[in-house]
Amino acid sequence: MMWAAEWRMRKRRSSSCCCSGLFCLTGIGSASLVFCYEKGALGAPLLHGWRPRTRPGLCGHGCRLADARSRGPRSAGRRGCRDCGALHDAAHCSTPPHERAQAWTPVLQSFHDAGEGERMKAVYDEATALTHDGQDFVIATVVHTQGSTPQKPGAALLVRGDGSTVGTLGGGCVEGDIWFAAKEALRENTGPQYKRYYLNEDIAARDGLVCGGTMYFYIEPLTGQASGRELSAEIADAYAGGPSLSVATLVKSDRLAQGTRIVVREDGTSEGTLGDAALDAEAIETAKDVMPMGRTARIHTEQGDELFVEGYTAPALLVLIGGGHVNLQVARIGHMMGLRVMVTDDRREFANNERFPMAEATNVAPYDRGVDAFPVTPNTAIVIGSRGHHFDDLATEAAARTNAGYVGLLGSKRKTIMIYESLLRKGVPEERLREIHAPVGLDLGGRAPEEIALSIVSEIVAWRNGRTGGPMTMEPFHLDRLVAKVNGAAAPR
User: Fold this and answer.
1) For residue 141, what pLDDT is reported?
2) All domains of the chain, ordered by start, with CATH?
3) Which of 27, 194, 295, 349 has the largest count of CB atoms under 10 Å?
4) Secondary structure of the chain in the HEC alphabet?
5) 279-283 mean pLDDT
6) pLDDT of residue 398
């Protein structure tokens, strides 16, 4: 059995087992082994991506299917798998392996915050300058991680011919070893490389890192070609607020040309090919998925191809309609979380740089027009907290007209119902109202402005990661088994 580069354990239920649940080790070649955590045994293999007589509402992994909205921003009409995180639709998942030419599972990995955006812009600004001068250099990119690692997918390091660098891969021995590989690639004039780096506990401790996982790198030597200069300039411009784009790069393949790429732009156009029409189509669709939020994704095919897809866009924007006490704290916490902050209010004393020094922009305007002054995109979160019910009504209507990916309304359920009734009568679509987070925030129980703000920003972070914000506490049976092991007793059934 050939092991794929990525495997994940996902809890699942099955009518074929009398126990309360199973762990499915998906992604192992073309088959999966089932581990029963109650009986403690490996069961028969299951075909990966296909389960005979899959019940309605289950994907091919046996997990529950959820609407795309429950997993964060996705393209319209696609279905996200709540349990395995795969971007696929039910029809594809239920197709037996012998009836399909290829199978892949695009997996969303990460996104860039404001600080990372600045570092990435610096990398591609330098790449643009070097290609303009005709100088050779290398860009090493983290394309996949497993376990605890110092950087996440998308982190990049540019290595010049003289060995100087821009960007970071997390420092320590990881960065040092990749730097050496990049220098060797320049010296020997080699092509792109795909490298796996094990960061065990000893290595991590030596570098003062609290991690111990595996990192996968794509090391690409680049020359002063006009096409490369233009792409680097486009990427740097996207980080600065220009048109977004995505790049899908074939980082590993035994059958296709390594390093080929497809560029997908905000207007929907694309250029380039990977050498496989079906893979091109999936790459373009995934590129559109990751673009609005600046995420990364990984596609692994049954033929062993590895595709890294990265979206480039300006860091997430937090727009505050109303500059009161709660939104002031939202601005402070949001800024600490790497969000760009912009504020609008109809009172000058509540929308100025003295009150909001962390804000990129402030705007004094009526609540129904203030948001129009800001560059709202699907990567924008709007929080409404004006100075009264009537103004919240106007502000919510204005926010609902935008394409912001997140809109939150501060206030009680009673106020929310009253505002929703008014907006429905004004013709605001029901579907848009269902997307609004109202009352805004997670249920943390706090009443102070700082506590309310924390709950709001926490929900925004959860939204950006495609999560609901539930507790991470592990299931009790893990501790039960540990207690039984320590006490030398039989494990509880």
Assistant:
1) 95
2) 8-100 (no CATH), 111-312 (no CATH), 317-464 (3.40.50.720)
3) 295
4) CCCCCCCEEEEECCCCCCCCCEEEEEEECCEEEEEECCCCEECCCEECCCCCCCCCCECCCCCEEEEHHHHCCCCCCCEEECCCCEECCHHHHCCCHHHCCCCECCEEEEECCHHHHHHHHHHHHHHHHHHHCCCCEEEEEEEEEECCCCCCCCCEEEEECCCCEEECCCCHHHHHHHHHHHHHHHHHCCCCEEEEEECCHHHHHHCCCCCCCEEEEEEEEECCCHHHHHHHHHHHHHHCCCCCEEEEEEEECCCCCCCCEEEEECCCCEECCCCCHHHHHHHHHHHHHHCCCCEEEEEEECCCCEEEEEEECCCCEEEEECCCHHHHHHHHHHHHCCCEEEEEECCHHHCCCCCCCCCCEEEECCCCCHHHHCCCCCCEEEEECCCCHHHHHHHHHHHHHCCCCEEEECCCHHHHHHHHHHHHHCCCCHHHHHHCECCCCCCCCCCCHHHHHHHHHHHHHHHHCCCCCCCCCCCHHHHHHHHHHHHCCCCCC
5) 96
6) 98
